[in-house]
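Follow-up to my earlier ticket, as requested here are the two runs.
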Amino acid sequence: MKWNKVHIGLILIGALLLGFAGAYIGVTLAQSNEDTQLIGDNNIAGNSQDESGEELEEATLPESWSKVAQAYNLIKNNYLEGAEEQQLIEGAIQGMLETLGDPYSSYMDVETMDQFNEQIESSFEGIGAEVSMVNGVVTIVSPIKNSPAEKVGLRPNDQVLEVDGESLEGYDLNEAVAKIRGEKGTEVVLTIVRQGTSEPFEVTIKRDTIPIETVHSEMKTIDGQKTGVIEITNFAETTSKEFETQLKALEEDGMEGLVIDVRGNPGGLLSSIEEILSLFVPKDTPYIQIEDQNGNKTPYYSDLDKKKDYPISVLVDEGSASASEILAVAMKEIGYDIVGNTTFGKGTVQQAVPLGDGSTVKLTFFKWLSPEGNWIHEKGVEPTVKVEQPKYYYTTPIQIEDELLEYDQSGSKIENVQVMLDGLGYEPGRTDGYFNRETEEAVKAFQEDNGLKVTGKVDQETAGMLETKIIEHIRSGEDDLQLDKALEVVHQ
């Protein structure tokens, strides 16, 4: 059996949707950036075949397996509250996988596999975010563009502590996702802790149909030069075709430079990123290498004769994972600029092995390496041009409990208010958390402009309006410093 022959089925999505290698929280679960390889529909416990037609090895059990059977019979026949056969079998499988300490190896029951397949087809319902388990905490890898999660302001690295007031402590990723997902039109309340802050806050999200469009493009004119911007939000089945179509349209319109934006892109199908990279990486350089457990490396090449005759830059951030990182590091190593923040850091490849009843074990089989043989796992891809977004991009919603925020007070909530006001063009005078007279005047001006009672004090209504306006401002892209820099470096 030669695993290195069957790379076509690799899925670079990671965990379960909510995709950091996590999971998609769409109706569904959707899955995160786990690079998964589909082997076939036969039962792995018997003789089955991989995609190259070779037989998979028949499962053999060690003599000590009788100990497992003894434990099974003991529990099945004697446990006080009773135990179902399926419950025990699935628990045993999950237990074996948990001992590996690998967040990307997992068991997916029939329902979860149905949801996984739905996400691969880019059509599902839910909140539209990908999650992973990071240090035992459910963590947002990235919200999907135009999804409910993005609209309420969820961001990469947000930690989900509770769902509808119930703690997620002790839950595995699948169990957590099951609590978050739900049908279109229903609501879920998440308790979030944001990186750099200590106080949790709540967000109420109305589940919806998650957008299936994965490629967005536009032409910008910078200093008289036509620059194309193509944003890829996920690497789904149709993404590479959509990308090639929109790239050709930009080229035919006289494009003189290109920015590829994969910020917040949690990954997707390997075949999709392969096809996209084949448009840029010449045939004398591999676009990826796959390494097996014995250290054997297999490079993969395109048929492209030469690089594009226009400059290119790639935009990344901490929400760019898996397939996005394959794109970023390949482009970086053939000489293009990578702009933004260091990426997530997922460099392993999973293979989904059907168990015959519709359930699947997703197990880490390979590493993927860059064209030069570098492994970015748990390190990410470093940008060649590091650019932070404005400070207000990292603010958190403000929850007012009993006491209003007003003059001569201080604290982290007031600092948050000041940063938001400053980002919206009001002038609080300072952003260190002390509520001075200038901050009071800025609050009054904001309240007046937004039809609120003008008091100069921050109540929950004012705080909620600030949050709404800052999210709208971020989504407008008016102060997108990373995109501005990517456009600049293209034509340096």
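Run two:
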Amino acid sequence: MASVRVSGTEGYADEAEELLKRYEGIPAADAHRAVLHLIPAAPGSVLDIGSGTGRDAAWFAAQGHRVVAVEPTDALRLPAMALHPSPQIEWLDDSLPDLAVLLARGERFDVIMLTAVWMHLDAQQRRRAMPNLASLVRAEGALIMKVRHGPVPPGRRMFEVSPEETIELARMQNLHPVLNLRTESSQEANRVAGVTWSNLAFVKAKRSAA
């Protein structure tokens, strides 16, 4: 039986081979320079949603973190597993906005990363997704997002998402903004096309006792 296409993954399976080359060619530390200070030095638990080629998951694992890498596109997840074998990484077929597999496990994470994921969800999906993400973050843990702005590549499904909207959705879930930084694309062709990125980060506050 053919698998049901997950909303927002359009175009990725067809371009998987090219994407593997492109993403793996950019070091994770360079791609995430704006948020390096938010990633714990001590080994912890990281949830990488939309893990793609596994580049970031492997980078976290190399730092000693235990990583759950979520990727709904088989054409990315299966090569990623072969490219980055590590006992520190668990690969999951799950997807936003519901993250049904993850939520059923009842885990909490020190860091949740969404790189180039959030803008694939429409407004209703984003409203559904934020409470699910918040429930997966430990108290004082971080939710880190990298959101793309600019022209949509052919065959992809993307929406223009403002940092302000995302910050408001996060605040409603006890996630407090600690970073809102616009940066250029690291890919020259995208820079020329006018692509920019919002680097957003939130910390989950401890709930005070009633």
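The only thing I checked on run two: Helices lie at 16-24, 28-31, 55-62, 74-83, 100-105, 123-136, 163-171, 188-193. Let me know what else you need.
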